[in-house]
Automatic annotation (TrEMBL):
This is Glutathione S-transferase. GO terms for molecular function: glutathione transferase activity. Coiled coil: none annotated. Residues 1-82 form the GST N-terminal domain. Keywords: Transferase. The keyword 4Fe-4S does not apply. The keyword Transferase applies. It comes from Anoplophora glabripennis (Asian longhorn beetle). Homodimer. The lineage of its organism: Eukaryota, Metazoa, Ecdysozoa, Arthropoda, Hexapoda. InterPro entries: Glutathione-S-Trfase_C-like, Glutathione-S-Trfase_C_sf, Glutathione_S-Trfase, Glutathione_S-Trfase_N, Thioredoxin-like_sf. GO terms for biological process: glutathione metabolic process.
């Protein structure tokens, strides 16, 4: 049995899948895709996914994309227990809500940093304030529990920790967020394979940012 993952190591959504796979002890056959150069896409990849986006998972002919769909599928298919994604409807709904929230957080900060990082534009104060509101919400989630969806590590933590690592890389001011910082340190320390799946791959994000910075000069 081979589980192929078409991915880009710089992509947040791809690193989310890598981190979840480590926590689930699922071995992936990693197939790099140069998402910045569509001309390099292989015929196999183009045939698999009409949207031609990463990450794309091919589990022996079952093909799915979008990181949240992939990690919940991997849990449902290969999870040895339900710790990361509880079967209890209420607990699972909380995890799902936090996963959807992660998508919103990403979108808000994408609006802030993409123009600056890739086009050299100044930060938009209104967009920045809107993005920081999402961090306020996350900090509030963590006042009442050790993890974002309760008192144990879940898929929601693995997804959100990748986004916070991006903000750290970008030099975003995280000092106002006491509970996020406590949680962030803990998840980095206990999430299986965190360094290999996420931290080591941040070098590719730095390279991408540097490439666009040079092009803008």
């Amino acid at each position: 049995m081979t589980i192929d993952l078409y991915y880009s190591p710089s992509g947040s959504s791809c690193r989310i899948v890598l981190l979840a796979a480590k926590s689930l002890d699922v071995e992936l056959n990693l197939i790099p895709v140069d998402i910045m150069n569509p001309e390099s896409f292989t015929p196999e990849f183009i045939k698999l996914n009409p949207q031609h986006c990463v990450p794309t998972l091919n589990d022996s002919g079952f093909v799915i994309w979008e990181s949240k769909a992939i990690i919940t599928y991997l849990q449902n298919q290969y999870g040895k227990n339900d710790d990361l994604y509880p079967k209890d409807p209420k607990k699972r709904a909380t995890v799902d809500q936090r996963l959807f929230f992660d998508t919103d957080l990403y979108a808000r900060f994408h609006e802030v940093y993409t123009p600056k990082t890739f086009a050299g534009s100044p930060l938009d104060p209104e967009a920045l304030a809107n993005a920081n509101k999402a961090l306020d919400f996350l900090d509030e989630f963590l006042v009442k529990s050790e993890y974002v969806a309760g008192d144990s590590l879940t898929l929601a933590d693995l997804s959100l920790v990748v986004q916070i690592s991006n903000l750290e890389l970008l030099g975003h001011d995280m000092s106002p967020y006491k509970y996020i910082n406590r949680w962030y340190a803990k998840v980095k320390a206990i999430a299986p394979g965190y360094k290999e799946a996420n931290e080591d791959n941040l070098v590719y994000v730095k390279q991408l940012i540097g490439h666009f910075a040079q092009a803008d000069e």
